[in-house]
Amino acid sequence: MTSAIRVVDLVKRFGAITAVDGVSFDVAKGELIALLGPSGCGKTTTLRCIGGYETPTAGIIEIAGQVVNDIPVHRRDIGMVFQSYALFPHKTVGDNVGFALKMRGVPKAERRRRVAESLELVELPGFEARYPGQLSGGQRQRVALARALIHRPSVLLLDEPLANLDRKLRQSMRVELKLIQEKVGVSTVFVTHDQEEALVMSDRVAVMEDGRIHQLGTPSEVYHRPATPFVATFIGETNLLEGEVAAVEGGLARVRIAGERDILVGATPPCAPGRRVAVTVRPERIELAREAPAGARNVVIGTVEFVTYLGASASYRVVAAGGQRFLVTQPLADDRAGFAEGDTVALWWAADRGLLLA
Length: 358
What we know:
Blueprint: E1 5-14, E2 17-27, E3 32-36, H1 43-51, E4 58-63, E5 66-67, E6 78-81, H2 93-97, H3 99-103, H4 108-121, H5 137-149, E7 155-159, H6 167-184, E8 187-192, H7 195-201, E9 204-209, E10 212-217, H8 219-224, H9 229-234, E11 239-249, E12 252-257, E13 261-266, E14 276-281, E15 287-289, E16 300-309, E17 313-320, E18 325-331, E19 344-348, E20 354-357
Parallel strand pairs: 3-8, 3-9, 6-7, 7-8
Antiparallel strand pairs: 1-2, 1-4, 4-5, 9-10, 11-12, 11-14, 12-13, 14-20, 15-19, 16-17, 16-19, 17-18
Helix pairs in contact: 4-5
């Protein structure tokens, strides 16, 4: 089956700076893929190359099976929503939304019908006569989305469209945006630096750094099975424990970390004694109590250094012998954290709750 979007070995250089360095991925029909990473990682440049706003230095970009490297923006079957929304302030909402149809010579009556249809889709019926300055940030975002979708593109490109909204509105709009995308069935590439946004909205996430993709997978895969230490630390919070494999036995690797402490973790991928590795353990996968139960593995004794109250849970920073710090998150049974700064505690986790990054 032909991919809606296909990017092969994409490279984009600006003089001596390589912004995108050999990026490849496919987007299936109706799929939403997020390009996620810190500022300067190449995600927006990749999006702009797909849209035709930048010319690739090398590589191939296909939309619906057609190579579009040399096709100008207005001839690509795309809809684009910019971070700034790029609405015409002197035009009404109706004129903004219908602008692409007017440029294509669509008759006025048909434009009105489709403008009304698009505004209904984004839950802004009857807003045709208003101006962008009379709208809230969330409403302007919806108008920009209606404008991008009105000509029924096969591909939708979103360049951090929620970045200018406050946190509460951003949380509601990301759900609304995903529901609209699913309803329309348009293949979408979404650029964001917000990991939570990517996990909520995406079918798959491409985690980028320094112009390259570290990992492309489902939200569950990149969170629970990160491919590299960068992905592990960038997606959510984690405990990244660096050390050396001391032994491998019974499918488990014994890793010596700071403080001459050994921890057990599944030996996947295969590794050999003497190899430098990292082990990632998510804070919510670690148990915490006054003392560890008999038979517990990977037991660490430490002192609570800092407590963060998070409402439904509490986050504890625990410092162990040798200075190694651990982050542990626990749900709260009532409205108070179970431990205070200065408490001596035991933390532990099963071998299958960590992940070896070799």
